[in-house]
């Protein structure tokens, strides 16, 4: 070790590389270890592996990425665990996810790699429940708790609560989280936990422990092995004997239920804390007396005492008042996990702080025996344990705290203000993010006496507010120390006025009890002398009773001026200080500061700085003041001072006399010549009535006369410098508004553009972009600037390039000439990107995303910009982060490099989300919705953004509201918490709907249709949006027309107002059908079929849509194909020509039906689960309805659905439609086995022949089941 300390610094990088190479070698060796099963990185392969192993053995799998350094550390550690557990009934394996990370993250809901997952052995699968009719438990509290435990979001709780006590049919199960999807009588489908089901009067066996468990700790062999061994233990074990003495062998925390019946609440609690508590059940506990009890137990090995080996086990106990109520039992366990005085380590303190209670943590020095005895006595006085046999019982009220002790020399305690050189110290935590630490007011020596003070003390935290409080607290501490010293020496008088001044012979302290007279009183007999202290700072401590005399302020000023050389000034008002309660004074410090005292401090600071500035000293002023706010009379010389700057005036109300200002306006407007105008201007420009309007008018008229050649004669007498100075002043004071600034730009730019420097060109374009919404005429300056940019672009600095590109993106719709600058700017960006600051990088990316459709070459800037983002992302402002994410969403297909920055940006969002503007929040959610499949990391920060939306929704613009609602609809299945934004957004939409652009209207209606089952309140937006659609329908794009029509079909039963938009939409579809995507065509056909009975005119869109289908059918997805086919079959009687289109003329199977059937037959082996259970039944049904048998399709379907498991996954309509269609086509004889399997499944579900007949009418339910 001594040798390592003297290793030259330049060898440190070499040691790092050696360590990295060693990790890689160990990683490669572990991948080939015979003790670890290697499973292919594919979801299907993992499922097959689990099906093979779980009936008899537990399974633990490490999902890892070869490029991840943590993974390279974790896998060798898991190999050591596998070697240690070779005789256990567990299979340990690993999955290399390097080439399939996105799919793994999505399927297993991972935040990153590595991830260790554990599955308990499962002799019986939940699949046996599929198809059964069961009853949902009527206990609402249990249903909600079980839903949270299963990881189901709260947004569908209303739907789950509606099932209480009702019969439901189980459609499918999910073994990962042990949930089942059920269907009600109304065909509503909801996912619920399995444990709330009752079958034939008996509860379904509790199997929550069989759900997948994730490891969450350090990647160390001992911790990982402990996790696996604990996970293998039964959820609840029998206590070896009825005596609690059998718990003494336990090496971890335990939970014991002493009752005849194992309650459901105890099973819940055991599941919640399976990784930290071992649960036991015993009929009775003699040590606790008769009756039912629950006991939380901490063994002696986890308890702390000052004397090693003297600790006893600790416990907390509750009786029948808790055990008889499941909800109370779960809550009690949550708040009693760590009884006693816990001995904390660096591994256990994290869980201890998050264990459901506030905590008191004592940081000690382990070898300081005398102080540790004192600490133990104080803790036991706080906890007041009661001895029971070999353990001690602790009781906890609602406000009591856990007690714990840790080694104060451990790294990390200094973060909480604890220094290893000053122990023991107390840190009181409300939660892991907020704490109280004060070595003067909460001490270990008087812990029991000082703890009540904590309720009134400032909370420290890692937030900016926490740091500000910490700094403020340092100031208060200085004052309080001086106040205590003065009080100790001279009593209350010493706290009234104390002045410490440096003298050669020592430090003289004087006091005066007569405020209002001179602060120095030579006749005062009380003048004690203190011993000289070398190096004592020159200081003055002034405490004044401001309500006694107005002269105090001036007296202090005079006294301070006379006494030079001050380095510290502290001012306070002691009138309202209590002699002992310094904590209360500390809390009042900021909230009750007196305006007058603040003024005094300001004067003292100024005077001290003036004196010290001439002496070379550094002034330091601390102002700590308590007292009641009171009216303040500012001294005359202060009150009458006026700023030399003119006060800014409000628009429309000029400074000075309003009548005179109007006269000047009339004079300037009525000037017949340039000479007359210049004369008027020169006389007024220095006057008090010259305002922003006059300045704007001056520039505009002067520029007009100059261009006409009429200014030459008068120019010599023009006071142009004064005019410029006045305008500069107005700009600085914010008086020059958009129109006036536009006039100034217009006056200068056209004639001066060719002489402008690159920076000036950039600034003018930037100003035009920012002013165009308030004053559209400002874009008239753009052509002159654009003409100069290409020749000067090479001399532009990085900031100027960024500004020009940003301005081009903002101006492209108002001044198309601006696009001419893009190629020249794009050519310069790659070489200068490395010198761009974070804001410039985000602006360039945002501009590239906005310009890519108009100037495709703009994407050439992306690689060079993306290369700079990772190093500068941490310095990006919130708006910059949101702009980059939005750009990534828009550029992902044109510039795939953009996806490389997503994870870097996402990592910065949580800390800066609270500072995002409404537009930024909207952009981030929009980007998350668009990037969720390409960059799953986006989903990790959705909850952070969602938490900010409710408070800022009222400030969102119409487009931002529609974007958030659209994003919520897209993200509802991937980020369940996103639905929390819906109520706040819905509340704002009605008032802002009239200002929405057509795209926004379309997005809101589409989102309402998608969210109606998850957030019923979303339907409140429909009337306001529907009222705007008819007037804006002509401006809707093809995709937007399709979305509105689709939404009308989905919402026709829930919001009848939707039918009012159909005529306006129908009128626009024929002209825009040719530009619709395949999915849009399918949606329009589906909507037409759904709406034809309520809005017969909707069928007018069908011919135009059908005309586009042949060319675009090959690009339709399976869902779009089946929806189009279903709709057209149902529309054939209402629209001439559709039948022949489906049949293909005189020859069968040459039309759309035959084409769709052939394509589905080929796709069938590759269809995913969702497509598989809807598309084949729909296409077979269409063949049957058209009486066009398709042998290839019928054979492929019979082969693909040849297993009972596959058939059991069909929806009721799909099952009935398949059986009925095969009968209708006369194919049941050819596919006898398949027909029999279908029939058996029908019988098992209780479906009759009438149900089969009903299915042949068609489903027209284009939505897949949603979880």
UniProtKB/TrEMBL annotation:
| Entry GO terms, CC | mitochondrial matrix; ribonucleoprotein granule
Domain Thioredoxin, chain residue ranges per copy? 25-169
Query: Per the UniProt entry, what is one GO biological process?
Result: regulation of mitochondrial mRNA stability
Which keywords label this protein?
Answer: Pyruvate, Signal
Spans annotated as Disordered: 637-658
Q: Which GO terms describe its molecular function?
A: RNA binding
Q: What segments bear the compositional bias annotation Basic and acidic residues?
A: 638-647
Q: Which CDD domains match?
A: PDI_a_family
Q: Which residues form the signal peptide?
A: 1-20
Q: Which PANTHER family match?
A: FAST LEU-RICH DOMAIN-CONTAINING (PTHR21228), LD45607P (PTHR21228:SF40)
Q: What is this protein called?
A: Pyruvate, phosphate dikinase
Source organism of this protein record = Cladocopium goreaui
């Amino acid at each position: 070790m001594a040798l390592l300390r003297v290793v030259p610094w330049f060898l440190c990088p070499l040691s790092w590389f050696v360590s990295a190479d060693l990790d890689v070698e160990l990683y490669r060796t572990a991948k080939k270890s015979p003790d670890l099963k290697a499973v292919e990185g594919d979801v299907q392969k993992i499922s097959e592996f689990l099906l093979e192993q779980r009936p008899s053995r537990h399974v633990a799998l490490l999902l890892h990425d070869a490029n991840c350094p943590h993974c390279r550390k974790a896998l060798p550690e898991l190999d050591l665990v596998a070697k240690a557990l070779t005789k256990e009934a567990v299979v340990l394996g690993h999955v290399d996810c390097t080439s399939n990370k996105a799919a793994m993250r999505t399927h297993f809901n991972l935040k990153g790699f590595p991830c260790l997952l554990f599955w308990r052995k499962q002799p019986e699968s939940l699949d046996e429940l599929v198809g059964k009719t069961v009853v949902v438990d009527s206990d609402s509290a249990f249903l909600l708790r079980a839903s949270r435990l299963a990881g189901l979001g709260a947004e569908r709780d209303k739907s789950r609560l509606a099932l209480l006590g009702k019969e439901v049919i189980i459609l499918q199960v999910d073994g990962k989280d042990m949930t089942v999807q059920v269907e009600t009588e109304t065909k509503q489908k909801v996912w619920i936990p399995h444990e709330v089901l009752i079958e034939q009067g008996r509860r379904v066996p509790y199997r929550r422990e069989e759900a997948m468990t994730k490891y969450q700790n350090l990647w160390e062999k001992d911790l990982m092995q402990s996790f696996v061994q604990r996970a293998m233990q039964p959820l609840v074990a029998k206590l070896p004997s009825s005596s609690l003495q059998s718990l003494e062998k336990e090496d971890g925390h335990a939970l014991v239920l002493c009752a005849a019946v194992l309650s459901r609440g105890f099973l819940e609690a055991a599941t919640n804390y399976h990784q930290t508590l071992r649960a036991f059940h015993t009929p009775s506990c003699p040590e606790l007396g008769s009756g039912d009890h629950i006991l939380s137990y901490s063994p002696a090995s986890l308890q702390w005492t000052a004397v090693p080996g003297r600790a006893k086990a600790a416990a907390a106990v509750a009786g029948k008042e808790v055990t008889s109520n499941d909800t109370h039992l779960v809550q009690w366990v949550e708040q009693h996990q760590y009884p006693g005085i816990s001995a904390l380590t660096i591994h256990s303190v994290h869980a201890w702080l998050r264990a459901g209670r506030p905590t008191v943590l004592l940081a000690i020095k382990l070898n300081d025996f005398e102080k540790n005895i004192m600490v133990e006595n104080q803790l036991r006085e706080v906890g007041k344990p009661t001895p029971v046999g070999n353990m001690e019982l602790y009781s906890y009220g609602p406000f009591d705290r856990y007690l714990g002790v840790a080694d104060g020399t451990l790294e990390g305690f200094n973060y909480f203000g604890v220094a290893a050189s000053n122990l023991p110290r107390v840190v009181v935590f409300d939660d892991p993010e907020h704490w109280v630490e004060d070595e003067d007011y909460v001490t270990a020596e008087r812990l029991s006496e000082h703890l009540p003070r904590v309720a009134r003390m400032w909370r420290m935290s890692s937030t900016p507010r926490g740091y500000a409080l910490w700094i403020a607290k340092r100031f208060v501490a200085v004052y309080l120390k001086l106040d205590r010293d003065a009080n100790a020496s001279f009593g209350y008088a010493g706290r009234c006025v104390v002045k410490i001044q440096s003298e050669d012979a020592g430090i003289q302290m004087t006091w005066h009890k007569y405020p209002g007279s001179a602060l120095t009183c030579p006749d005062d007999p009380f003048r004690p002398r203190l011993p000289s202290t070398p190096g004592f700072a020159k200081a003055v401590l002034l405490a004044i009773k401001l309500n006694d005399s107005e002269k105090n302020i001036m007296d202090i000023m005079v006294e301070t001026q006379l006494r030079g050389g001050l380095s510290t000034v502290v001012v306070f008002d002691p009138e309202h200080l209590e002699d002992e309660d310094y904590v209360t004074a500390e809390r009042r410090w900021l909230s009750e500061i007196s305006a007058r005292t603040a003024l005094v401090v300001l004067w003292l600071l100024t005077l001290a700085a003036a004196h010290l500035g001439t002496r070379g000293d550094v002034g330091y002023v601390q102002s700590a003041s308590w007292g009641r706010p009171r009216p303040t009379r500012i001294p005359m010389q202060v009150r009458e001072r006026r700023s030399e700057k003119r006060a800014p005036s409000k628009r429309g109300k000029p400074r000075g006399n309003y009548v005179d200002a109007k006269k000047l306006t009339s004079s300037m407007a009525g000037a017949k010549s340039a000479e007359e105008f210049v004369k008027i201007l020169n006389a007024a420009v220095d006057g008090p009535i010259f305002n922003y309007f006059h300045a704007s008018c001056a520039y505009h008229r002067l520029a007009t006369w100059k261009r006409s050649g009429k200014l030459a004669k008068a120019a010599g007498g023009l006071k142009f410098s004064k005019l410029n100075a006045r305008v500069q002043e107005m700009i600085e004071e914010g008086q020059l508004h958009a129109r006036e600034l536009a006039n100034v730009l217009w006056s200068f730019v056209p004639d001066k553009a060719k002489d402008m420097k690159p920076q000036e060109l950039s600034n003018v374009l930037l100003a035009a972009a920012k002013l165009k919404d308030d004053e559209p005429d400002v874009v008239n300056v753009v052509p002159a600037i654009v003409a100069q940019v290409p020749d000067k672009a090479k001399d532009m600095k990085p900031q100027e390039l960024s500004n020009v590109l940003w301005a081009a993106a903002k101006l492209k719709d108002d001044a198309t000439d601006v696009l001419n600058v893009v190629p020249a700017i794009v050519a310069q960006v790659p070489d200068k990107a490395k010198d761009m600051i974070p804001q410039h990088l985000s602006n360039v990316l945002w501009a590239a995303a906005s310009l890519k459709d108009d100037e495709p070459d703009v994407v050439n800037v992306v690689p060079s910009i993306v290369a700079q983002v990772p190093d500068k992302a941490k310095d990006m402002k919130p708006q910059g982060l949101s702009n980059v994410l939005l750009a990534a969403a828009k550029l992902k297909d044109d510039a795939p490099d953009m996806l490389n920055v997503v994870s870097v940006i996402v990592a910065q969002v949580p800390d800066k989300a609270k500072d995002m503007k409404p537009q930024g929040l909207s952009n981030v959610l929009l980007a998350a919705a668009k990037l969720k499949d390409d960059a799953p990391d986006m989903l990790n920060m959705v909850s952070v953004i969602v938490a900010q939306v409710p408070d800022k929704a009222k400030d969102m613009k119409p487009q931002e509201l529609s974007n958030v609602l659209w994003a919520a609809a897209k993200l509802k299945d991937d980020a369940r918490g996103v639905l929390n934004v819906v109520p706040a957004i819905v509340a704002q939409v009605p008032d802002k709907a009239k200002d929405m652009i057509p795209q926004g209207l379309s997005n809101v209606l589409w989102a309402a249709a998608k969210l109606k089952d998850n957030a019923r309140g979303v339907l409140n937006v429909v009337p306001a949006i529907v009222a705007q659609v008819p007037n804006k329908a002509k401006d809707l794009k093809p995709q937007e027309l399709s979305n509105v029509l689709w939404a009308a079909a989905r919402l026709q039963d829930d919001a009848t107002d939707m039918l009012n938009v159909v005529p306006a939409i129908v009128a626009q579809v024929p002209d825009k059908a040719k530009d619709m995507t395949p999915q849009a065509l399918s949606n329009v056909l589906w909507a037409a079929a759904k709406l034809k009975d309520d809005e017969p005119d909707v069928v007018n869109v069908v011919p135009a849509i059908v005309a586009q289908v042949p060319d675009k059918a090959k690009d339709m997805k399976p869902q779009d194909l089946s929806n189009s086919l279903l709709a057209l079959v149902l529309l054939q009687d209402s629209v001439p020509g559709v039948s022949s289109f489906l049949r293909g003329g005189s020859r069968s199977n040459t039309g759309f039906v035959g084409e769709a059937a052939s394509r589905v037959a080929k796709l069938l082996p590759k269809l995913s689960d969702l497509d598989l259970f809807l598309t084949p039944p729909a296409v077979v049904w269409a063949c049957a309805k058209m009486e066009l048998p398709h042998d290839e399709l019928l054979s492929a379907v019979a082969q693909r659905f040849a297993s009972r498991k596959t058939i059991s996954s069909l929806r009721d309509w799909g099952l009935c439609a398949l059986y009925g269609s095969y009968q209708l086509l006369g194919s049941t004889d050819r596919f006898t086995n398949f027909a029999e399997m279908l029939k058996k499944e029908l019988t098992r579900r209780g479906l009759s022949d009438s149900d089969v007949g009903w299915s042949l009418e068609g489903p027209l339910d284009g939505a897949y089941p949603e979880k």
